[in-house]
Design brief:
Shape: globular
Order of helices and strands: HHHHHHHH
Distance between the termini: 18 Å
Helix content: over 70%
């Protein structure tokens, strides 16, 4: 992928941070939709994939902080674990998209997205087990909350994020990862 300027990356990151506030507001109008669809993960993963790991971490840090400050969601007791989890998503999405080079845009996105989704969930589970819910968190609780309850959100991310990335590239809003053959 060609390089974007720091200004363009900063603007995209700011939009993703704003989406971290707006998307959960829409989802939280339905009971438990935030936990099921995980709307904050979408802009953080997009930011990491588009702008790289530094901006992905920034989005993962500032998105939930701003959302908590403006809307009260996530609530203060959940904020530290969400900040850590979302920062991990941004970091891993940014690193994996830089490493993965399959020759096909969608394959690269799916591989990078899958790696980020799995590693982010592992980081979140380990942190909850050892720090944020020490002694009161099990593998069964982790599986239930991050994979079973969140299955609709996982499916949404797997469908939506590659589609958005392909559309942004096709529209010329982000640089082409692979030049078109003539």
């Amino acid at each position: 992928m060609g390089e974007m300027s720091s200004v363009k990356k900063s603007i995209i990151t700011a939009v993703c941070i704003a989406l971290c506030v707006v998307l959960p507001m829409a989802f939280h109008s339905v009971q438990n939709a935030g936990r099921i669809f995980m709307p904050m993960q979408i802009p953080v993963l997009l930011c990491g994939l588009i702008c790289g790991w530094r901006f992905g971490i920034l989005c993962g840090l500032l998105g939930p902080l701003l959302s908590s400050f403006v809307t009260g969601m996530p609530p203060m007791p959940l904020l530290p674990s969400m900040v850590a989890e979302l920062s991990a998503y941004g970091l891993v999405a940014g690193i994996s998209t830089r490493i993965v080079r399959s020759g096909t845009l969608l394959a690269d996105i799916y591989i990078s997205l899958a790696v980020a989704m799995v590693v982010g969930r592992i980081v979140a589970g380990v942190l909850r087990a050892l720090i944020f819910s020490s002694g009161g968190y099990s593998i069964a609780a982790w599986m239930a909350s991050y994979f079973v309850t969140a299955l609709p959100g996982l499916i949404l991310q797997i469908i939506l994020i590659p589609s958005i990335m392909a559309a942004l590239e096709s529209a010329g809003l982000i640089p082409r990862r692979y030049p078109r053959s003539r």
